[in-house]
Design brief:
The complex is a heterodimer of chains A (399) and B (301).
Chain A (H helix, E strand, L loop, with lengths): L4 E6 L6 E5 L2 E6 L4 E7 L1 H9 L20 E6 L5 E6 L4 E6 L5 E6 L4 E6 L5 E6 L3 E6 L10 E2 L3 H5 L8 E2 L4 E6 L7 E7 L4 E6 L5 E4 L7 E5 L7 E6 L3 E6 L4 E7 L1 H4 L14 E7 L4 E6 L4 E6 L9 E7 L2 E6 L5 E6 L10 E6 L5 E4 L1 H10 L26
Parallel strand pairs in A: 8-12
Antiparallel strand pairs in A: 1-2, 2-3, 3-4, 5-6, 6-7, 7-8, 9-10, 10-11, 11-13, 14-15, 15-16, 16-17, 18-19, 19-20, 20-21, 22-23, 23-24, 24-25, 26-27, 27-28, 28-29
Chain B lengths: L21 H21 L68 E6 L5 H9 L4 E6 L2 H17 L11 E5 L2 H8 L5 E7 L17 H10 E11 L2 H13 L3 E3 L2 H6 L1 H9 L1 H8 L5 E7 L6
Parallel strand pairs in B: 1-2, 1-4, 2-3, 4-5
Antiparallel strand pairs in B: 5-7, 6-7
Helix pairs in contact in B: 1-3, 2-8, 8-9
The chains are: A mainly beta (399), B alpha/beta (301).
Function (chain A): Required for the formation of N(7)-methylguanine at position 46 (m7G46) in tRNA. In the complex, it is required to stabilize and induce conformational changes of the catalytic subunit.
Pathway (chain A): tRNA modification; N(7)-methylguanine-tRNA biosynthesis
Subcellular location (chain A): Nucleus
């Protein structure tokens, strides 16, 4: 069978759609549904294991995973020249050129990368890891360095690393962004599993400017809408979406989600929990799409430019959404959804969001063609990745 | 840290194998239970006048706990959502009115000195009399060690209730993971002194990230300290000392204070002689390494 597509990215410069299915990255021309080119993390995995001495690993009770090195994050640089992702087991950052999907460089990290942000200068990217450290790296490798995969030396495996984190949390880093310039300065905003939303100066990351306090659960998604550069939206395990003025730390509005999600009547005894796993903006409509992974509802909200005006809920639609990528300038977006039918496999949809926030599926034949072409073969459904990892971030402490 | 491996495991009865020490264990449990009951009652009480019966200082041997804790694990911790959500009147009842009272509306004193990983509270108790007009907070991640310090403060407060200065009302302790949640307790620039006395050395290279001074945590300490505020470090482990010096030295927000400054500073003297670890090192005639840093106004690259 074919593995579902877990991540999507859209390149606004060349109009191409990138799909990450398991370990494979595929580039599609979304106007024709034709597969243009592809790349696989197998290429760096082979490099990594080539001259590795057999290491005694702790005996694992669970069966070895087949899809070991899948893409966990994927984004496209603003200038459209690079596609950047991070992978599971190899804990590697991968930078590919969008012209021919050639590997610019990849590098292994001591801890698994969990968040990725590209600064809008298109020169630097920030990478946050499972233990809260954030590294700053060039997108374009420096002239002297050779392309290809750089491994960790055995010394680095043990302790330090040849690059120092520029800042860090003592908790899993879950999301990360670099703000647009506000009064001549730029900031990095980062969130973690311990309810923290932090505003750090960038690139002078030794200065923590403030925290945005108010979350009581993990914060998995951050967005600064392009039409409201001092506004921050954040969501995760709390039953609300927080709307902040991140330049002051003020919680402007708590957008309660329960009313729009609606607890399923059949699951009366189950506690009402939210797991926001995605927030995307549609700039020309000043609308954001918010996905709750527990109720499987994709919600649309109007976020006014002025913080004195409340946000407005527009509509909702049920999807078992894995990821989305806003594509055009007219409210269009690509979705990848979990296909629970017998064949499973990738399922790609295209939607259009209108001015009133209503979500309609469009170009179904084209989406179907892409769904049928996208291919990363696996033996059985047991090999499918854990595709809904967000709710696992909820803490269950015992002592 | 798994509960099963900790010597604090409170399984009643125990297996036959542990029989010889069962009475000792029983005794420890009984002691701690009676202390616990009293702690609940007296933790937030303002003692007045001379009590007929003085509360005895707690005995350390009943509060034994493994010396290490994993700062990355999700402990069941209580922490405020933000500094403004913190009710400090429970910790400093004689000095801070409860948030519901009418006095609470006027500006209240704030904690200015933090002892991170205060252990059994030796430094904290000395700081109480050194800075009688400042609020000092000890933070400790180990439950029973925290309880010992709580009981120690209760006893000291009650014993000195009749004295004119009413000492020890300005110190308190709470269980916290300081590596994760300090900004939940303190506002930006609230602190003037932070103490890191004999921290866990985390010897293994792969555990270095669990050390209390790292470049990334130093940024957080710079956020909490006001300009001119001071980070105090002391350890008997040379390797850890060098590590702390390296990371603070490289940090653009901190500058090391001179040996002469160290010699003239009262807190350095207290830190050398009044911490439990400091005393232990003294007995074993070991070395003590001190390094103090001032928080700069602006980053210096």
């Amino acid at each position: 069978m074919r593995h579902p597509v877990q991540k999507l990215a859209f390149n606004r410069t060349n109009g191409r759609l990138y799909l990450a299915a398991g370990e494979k990255l595929q580039e599609f021309d979304p106007t024709t549904g034709v597969l243009v080119q592809e790349w696989s993390t197998e290429l760096i995995a082979a490099d990594e294991t080539k001259d590795e001495q057999p290491k005694k690993k702790k005996a694992k009770t669970e069966q070895a995973k087949v899809v070991r090195n899948a893409f966990r994050t994927l984004s496209c640089s603003e200038d459209g020249r690079y596609i950047v992702g991070s992978t599971d087991e190899l804990k590697s950052l991968v930078v590919l050129s969008t012209t021919d999907l050639s590997l610019q460089y990849s590098r292994k990290f001591p801890k698994r990368p969990s968040a990725l942000a590209i600064t809008d200068s298109n020169e630097t990217l920030l990478l946050g890891d499972k233990f809260g450290d954030v590294y700053s790296l060039p997108i374009v490798p420096s002239a002297g360095s050779k392309p290809g995969h750089s491994k960790l030396s055995s010394a680095e495996n043990e302790s330090g690393y040849d690059i120092e984190p520029i800042f860090g949390h003592v908790s899993m880093l879950v999301d990360l962004l670099v703000t647009p310039e506000v009064e001549g300065a730029r900031y990095a905003i980062s969130s973690d599993r311990d309810e923290h939303v932090r505003v750090t100066r960038y690139p002078e990351a030794c200065v923590i400017e403030r925290f945005c306090f108010g979350h009581m659960q993990y914060v998995s998604q951050l967005l600064v809408p392009s039409w409201a550069p001092t506004t921050l939206l954040s969501g995760g395990g709390d039953d609300f979406l927080a709307r902040w003025n991140w330049t002051t730390g003020e919680l402007v509005e708590k957008i309660e989600l329960e009313a729009y999600i609606g607890a399923e009547p059949s699951e009366e005894d189950s506690e009402f929990e939210v797991a926001v796993s995605g927030i995307w903006e549609i700039p020309e409509l000043k609308i954001v799409l918010v996905f709750d992974d527990n109720s499987k509802k994709l919600l649309s909200f109007k976020i006014p430019e002025s913080q004195s005006e409340p946000a407005r809920f527009l509509s909702s639609k049920k999807y078992d959404l894995l990821d989305a990528a806003v594509s055009g300038t007219n409210g269009e977006a690509w979705l990848t959804v979990y296909n629970s039918s017998e064949s499973e496999g990738p399922e790609i949809k295209k939607i259009k969001v209108d001015e009133s926030g209503v979500i309609t599926e469009i170009e179904e034949a084209l989406a179907k063609k892409i769904s049928e072409t996208a291919s990363f073969e696996i033996a059985s459904r047991a090999d499918v990745l854990a595709l809904h990892p967000v709710s696992l971030l909820r803490k269950h402490a015992e002592h | 840290m798994s509960e099963a491996t900790a010597p604090t495991n409170e399984n009643v009865g125990g297996s036959p194998a542990s029989e010889p020490s069962a009475t000792g264990k029983r005794k420890r449990m009984d002691y701690r239970q009676s202390q616990q009951a009293r702690r609940q009652e007296l933790k937030s009480v303002v003692f007045e006048g001379d009590a007929e019966e003085k509360i005895k200082l707690p005995k350390k041997k009943y509060y034994r706990q493994r010396a290490h804790s994993n700062p990355f694990s999700d402990h069941l911790l209580e922490y405020p959502k933000s500094p403004s959500d913190m009710d400090w009147s429970r910790l400093y009842p004689a000095l801070i009115p409860p948030p519901t009272s009418t006095e609470a509306a006027s500006p209240q004193p704030k904690v200015e000195i933090a002892d991170i990983g205060c252990g059994f509270g030796g430094l904290l108790v000395s700081l109480a009399t050194e800075f009688p007009d400042k609020l000092v907070l000890g933070m400790e991640i180990r439950v029973q060690v925290t309880q010992y310090v709580e009981d120690r403060i209760i006893a000291l407060r009650q014993q000195h209730a009749a004295s004119e200065e009413k000492l020890y009302n300005n110190i308190a302790v709470l269980r916290a993971n300081a590596m994760k949640f300090l900004p939940n307790f303190f506002e930006k620039g609230q602190l003037s002194k932070m103490f890191f006395c004999f921290p866990d050395p985390h010897f293994k290279a792969r555990k270095h990230k669990a050390r209390i001074i790292t470049s990334t945590l130093a940024s957080e300490y710079a956020y909490l300290l006001r300009p001119g505020g001071i980070v105090y470090t002391i350890t008997d482990v040379k390797d850890l000392h060098e590590w702390m010096v390296k990371h603070l030295e490289e940090h653009p927000m901190f500058k090391r204070l001179s040996k002469e400054w160290e010699e003239s500073d009262k807190c350095v003297q207290i830190m050398r002689k009044d911490t439990e670890e400091g005393k232990k090192v003294e007995r074993n005639q070991g070395d003590k390494f001190v390094a103090c840093y001032v928080r700069l106004e602006k980053p210096e690259y």
